[in-house]
Amino acid sequence: MNKNRLEAFSDGVLAIIITIMVLEFKVPNDTTFESVVKLSHKFLSYILSFIYVGIYWNNHHHMMQTVKHVNGAILWANLHLLFWLSLIPFTTAWIGEHHFAAFPMMLYGVILLMNAIAYFILQRVILKHHGKDSVLSKAIGEDYKGKASIVFYIIAVLSSKYYTEISGALYILVALIWLVPDKRIEKILNDDN
């Protein structure tokens, strides 16, 4: 089965997710600087979530470059990832609306954790389909960033009840880890050509 439809559908869903997040912003009723400052929590949560969705889009794109063809398991694993990504706008709005309160921050972390697990599952399903000698297998190696991200999310979720600042810092840390350009897949693809 050709991978193009999977990529096009995924790109469309991710574009909608970003659009939904920005639509959560309501125009202030007045025209003062203070009215914009009141939106700062919403804006900060939007920035972080936009970065996360962008990271997933970028990594999904790179991973799909290694895929020659897809099967039903890959399609379902991809839908599983898209499901968890589609919940980001809800938790983004919630943490922004309630100024990074404990339970919304915990649920935000749970959603980020589930996204990381879903991405890991998609990666494993692709590896199973394409084999241990595949381009993706060579590129990801031990996947320390992926494993560390899951550990940081678990710590953030557990600490959110008492230390939302630590949770927020860990969510930002994971985003920063993934913002550093990951050239593994590009390097392997270029070496093969």
What does this entry look like structurally?
- The protein has helices spanning 4-23, 33-37, 40-65, 72-86, 88-97, 102-130, 135-140, 144-159, 164-179, 184-192.
- The longest helix is centred in the middle third of the chain and has 29 residues, at 102-130.
- It is mostly helical and 193 residues long.
- The model has no long low-confidence stretch (mean pLDDT 91).
- It is built from 10 helices and no strands.
What's a concise summary of this model?
With 193 residues, the chain is mostly helical.
Which SSEs are present, and which pair or pack?
Elements: H1 4-23, H2 33-37, H3 40-65, H4 72-86, H5 88-97, H6 102-130, H7 135-140, H8 144-159, H9 164-179, H10 184-192
Taking the sheet with the most strands, its summary is: none
Form type: globular
Q: How much helix is in the residues? A: over 70%
What number is the mean pLDDT?
91
Approximately how much beta-strand content do the residues carry? under 5%
Number of helices: 10
The H/E string reads: HHHHHHHHHH
Structural class: mainly alpha
Which stretches of 5+ consecutive residues score pLDDT under 50?
none
- Please provide the count of β strands: 0
List its salient traits.
mainly alpha; 79% helix
